[in-house]
Design goal:
By secondary structure, the protein is an alpha/beta fold. It has twelve helices and eight strands. The structure holds S-adenosylmethionine.
Length: about 270
């Protein structure tokens, strides 16, 4: 199993559109404990730390910290020029830099905290990126990765797998999903321990509660394999998914368990 191809990652994150759809789905339909308070609890920031957020996307995390009064240097790095452009426009109080996780343009020991949220499963060489993270952290600095834990949204992927034999595009979706397993709480724990000498793993269990099939379809269509389908093909795939989803909604909403892993270490 390997990470998604660089071309696939570049296409998916050329702008923040697809990611925005998925993030809004999590905000609107999420039930159970929220991720942000758990992140804040684990980082326990004093407010003056120099913090680097790698794979920052639209920069929501460092932007939130600045809005909440963080006084230390805040930097977001992303491989996608489109994301960096968007983040710069929306969060003027944060520095944004276009760079890859495994070649960070900062001197050794530049930061007291480094976060990598929902991004290490896209990186082709995770040990190289983790070594780079350790390099730019000062001794005693803290690292926190946030990632999908094994089995997260498994019931959603069961639906996709049920339709995949008749729709090859859904096979592509399942393959890219399998690529995401390259950095879960299981393999992530060993990789982070190898880079930092120690590791702490937390798993946050929550769920998505969908009121109808429509937001499920919107969520799936934000993924590369589906949003690049021609209009006619997309309509057919939608109908096939709707058919398989219908029984899940017979009793009202559909609850899909979700699991997020938080993997922390100290340099
Ligand atoms: C799922 S998004 C997560 C964005 C943000 N951290 C969040 O949680 O909302 C993954 C982000 O990682 C970026 N990315 C992928 N590979 C990268 C790499 N090798 N170096 C830096 N960023 C990368 C993508 O461009 C994308 O913006």
């Amino acid at each position: 199993m390997s990470a998604n191809s660089p071309a696939e990652v570049a296409a998916q994150y050329a702008t923040d559109r697809n990611l925005r759809v998925r993030k809004e789905t999590h905000v609107r339909y999420g039930v159970g404990p929220d991720l942000e308070p758990r992140v804040d609890e684990l980082l326990a920031l004093r407010g003056n730390e120099a913090l680097l957020d790698v794979g920052t996307g639209p920069g929501d995390f460092p932007g939130r910290l600045r809005d909440q009064g963080h006084r230390g240097r805040l930097v977001g790095v992303d491989l996608s020029p489109g994301m960096v452009e968007h983040a710069t426009a929306f969060h003027p109080g944060v520095e944004f830099v276009q760079a890859s996780a495994d070649a960070l343009p900062f001197p050794d020991a530049s930061f007291g905290v480094l976060t990598a949220r929902h991004m290490l499963y896209h990186v082709p060489d995770v040990p190289a990126a983790l070594a780079e993270f350790a390099r730019v952290l000062r001794p005693g600095g803290r690292f926190l990765a946030v990632t999908n834990a094994s089995g997260s949204l498994g019931e959603l992927w069961d639906v996709v797998a049920e339709v995949a034999p008749e729709e090859p595009a859904l096979g592509g979706l399942l393959e890219s999903r399998a690529g995401s397993a390259v950095f879960s709480e299981h393999n992530g724990e060993g990789l982070v321990r190898a880079a930092f000498g120690q590791v702490q793993v937390d798993v946050l269990d929550s769920a998505l509660m969908f009121p109808s099939p429509e937001p499920v379809l919107t969520y799936l269509e934000s993924m590369t394999a589906l949003h690049r389908l021609a209009e006619g093909d997309r309509g057919r795939v939608r109908e096939a998914l709707r058919r398989v989803l219908a029984p899940r909604f017979r009793a009202g909403g559909w609850r899909v368990p979700k699991r997020v892993a938080l993997i922390g270490a100290r340099r």
